Amino acid sequence: MKRSSDEGIVISPIKNGTVIDHITPGEGLTVIRILGIQDGTNVTFTVATNVVSSRGGRKDMVKIENRELVKSEVDKLALIAPDAKISIIRDSKVVEKKSVEVPTDITGVIKCPNPNCITNTREPAESRFTFHSRGFRCCYCDTVISREMDIGDYI
Amino acid sequence: MTHDQKNILSVRDMDREEIDALLTAAAKFDQKKFTGHELEGKILAVLFFEPSTRTRMSFASAMMRLGGKILNLGSVEASSIAKGETLSDTIRVISGYADAIVLRHPKEGAARLASEVASVPVINGGDGAGQHPSQTLLDLFTIRKSMKLENIDIGLQGDLRYGRTVHSLAAALTKYDDIRLHTIAPEGLDLPSHLKQDLTDAGMEIIVHENIEETIPELDVLYVTRLQRERFPDPAAFASFAATYRVTPELLEMAKPSMIVLHPLPRVDEIDPAVDKMPCAKYFQQAHYGVPIRMAMLNEVMRS
């Protein structure tokens, strides 16, 4: 058992799985939601929110047992937690550490907020967004989801 | 989409050289420098899912002037779309019937989707509140007929929030040097903030004005758009704004002699008919330029 001296939160270490650290404060549950492990699954996970970060400030943290994230999940994660650090745990050891990187092109992940966009119809069209300095732009209708908006609402 | 298929979907996709090449080609067509056989044996499929007069007829006219033929979808009600066929399937099928497709559709991004499934070039004839590249090109062409497309002041007046012609034109103007944009719009109908940001990111200067009188002496172009009643809280508010934003001969006395007035049409009350006879009134000429511009577009996608 590991005890955070700052918070008094008890976080159990995991034997196998994934630890996602340095998540933007308040986004921990969104991470769980976009990874599809919130409801109706038998995945064991732990969310710690508003933990004091060693880097200063606060952070959320997620531990998922017996599951390693695939690239498409890491890409999704990058959209809402661009500073996140991912650790893969096997036999209680960290075997891999990686940062997330926001992809330039994001396909089939973000739902366009424009109700009149062709991707929000019966057409067999996957949403496609490009990432640029001001946020995410729909490749079909040019709608921009700016950095001020909560991208988690559209995933 | 085939590897070398050339589409015209949005001015955003085009660089200045491509735009200028189309404007130069249109100038030749406008001067009747063509044989009428350029697109002989070619068929243009015209798929309009929304009402249109100018765009539909000028594309048809352009195709016929170049010796090509038109294949019309006709009414949506009489087509397989009424049975629930998707746009993607319709486009795939029509690709086998024609050498190019011009599409107007109520959903933004429809033309881009069409280009991804089509095996022939696709031209966007306007999609929802999104892009309308042929209108933008003819607007640029009309300006270029009167002045150089550089170091000029362009006023945009009317519904700048929802007007797609204004959005497309403003985006295209960022590709030219030293264009200053002056906006004159009722509260709540100014340019969308994301578009303003795009324009300023591209280095364009935008000056917002309370009224047209304060800026008209410095304008080289006044681009007027229609105010739509449904955008206003009540008829009184609309009537008040419509009177404030009306272009009259008296107002134009304050303008430079070389200033031109444009309007994408249809107009309602925003330009006094007495202006029509003034030398600065270029909006009907602007509509006529739709044919040479669309001839250039059709020639570009079907002969390249």
TrEMBL record, chain A:
This is Aspartate carbamoyltransferase regulatory chain. PANTHER family: ASPARTATE CARBAMOYLTRANSFERASE REGULATORY CHAIN. Residues 10-101 form the Aspartate carbamoyltransferase regulatory subunit N-terminal domain. Contains catalytic and regulatory chains. It comes from Methanorbis furvi. The keyword Protein biosynthesis does not apply. Zn(2+) binds at C112, C117, C138, C141. Involved in allosteric regulation of aspartate carbamoyltransferase. GO terms for molecular function: metal ion binding. Its cofactor is Zn(2+). Residues 106-148 form the Aspartate carbamoyltransferase regulatory subunit C-terminal domain. Binds 1 zinc ion per subunit. Gene3D superfamilies: Aspartate carbamoyltransferase regulatory subunit, C-terminal domain, Aspartate carbamoyltransferase regulatory subunit, N-terminal domain.
TrEMBL record, chain B:
Its EC number is 2.1.3.2. It is an enzyme of class 2 (transferase). Residues 151-298 form the Aspartate/ornithine carbamoyltransferase Asp/Orn-binding domain. Pfam families: OTCace, OTCace_N. Keywords: Pyrimidine biosynthesis, Transferase. It catalyses: carbamoyl phosphate + L-aspartate = N-carbamoyl-L-aspartate + phosphate + H(+). L-aspartate binds at K83, R164, R226. The keyword Transferase applies. One of its GO terms (biological process) is amino acid metabolic process. PROSITE patterns: CARBAMOYLTRANSFERASE. Transmembrane segments: none annotated. Carbamoyl phosphate binds at R54, T55, R104, H132, Q135, L265, P266. Pathway: Pyrimidine metabolism; UMP biosynthesis via de novo pathway; (S)-dihydroorotate from bicarbonate: step 2/3. GO terms for molecular function: amino acid binding; aspartate carbamoyltransferase activity. Coiled coil: none annotated. Residues 6-144 form the Aspartate/ornithine carbamoyltransferase carbamoyl-P binding domain. Catalyzes the condensation of carbamoyl phosphate and aspartate to form carbamoyl aspartate and inorganic phosphate, the committed step in the de novo pyrimidine nucleotide biosynthesis pathway. PANTHER family: ASPARTATE CARBAMOYLTRANSFERASE, ORNITHINE CARBAMOYLTRANSFERASE, MITOCHONDRIAL. Belongs to the aspartate/ornithine carbamoyltransferase superfamily. ATCase family. Heterooligomer of catalytic and regulatory chains. NCBIfam families: asp_carb_tr, PRK00856.1. This is Aspartate carbamoyltransferase. The lineage of its organism: Archaea, Methanobacteriati, Methanobacteriota, Stenosarchaea group, Methanomicrobia. The gene is pyrB.
